[in-house]
Amino acid sequence: MEAIPVRVLNLNNKPRILDKGHVIATCEPVVDIIARPQEFSGAQHLPSTLENFQILNEKQRSAVRKLLNEFQNLFSTCDADVGHCNMAQHRINTGDHPPIKQYPRRLHLAKKEEAEHLIKEMVDNGIIEESSGPWASPIVLVKKKDGSTRFCVDYRRLNEITKKTVIPCHE
After folding, report:
1. d(CA 101, CA 134)
2. Which regions form coiled coils (predicted)?
3. What is the pLDDT of residues 22-39, one digit of tens each?
4. CA pair distance 18, 117, nearest whole angstrom
């Protein structure tokens, strides 16, 4: 077995002790590499994007083009491509306020079918997941200028009881 140096980040407030020789990870051979479909290639979007950089000269535009090509996998190219981070656990501080459970708003049959389709799409893409907690807020479907629908959640009641955290800027 080969030892590989690994950087470790403690995301907890409690100190952790890692004993020498303790296995913290294992490596496995790559079984399959799933490539992004060709139609989502970021390079296709570069020409129209670079037209917005008219204040740059050609040398600068070329440098930007090179950077965008090099890091194109970091940019979202569709609504389903939102990324995911599991390195931190999110918590909304509501103090000792009891959970707020708002019931769903009534929707027309066509809107209900559209909402169910959007929910299924988000579940399939790993954007949302089912839960059965005591908190609930209603959804709102908003028509965008292009005619498509934006799926929103009405968190106004939750926002009213959320304890605001002020983090000073360090300049």
Report:
1. 7
2. none
3. 888 777 777 666 555 444
4. 47
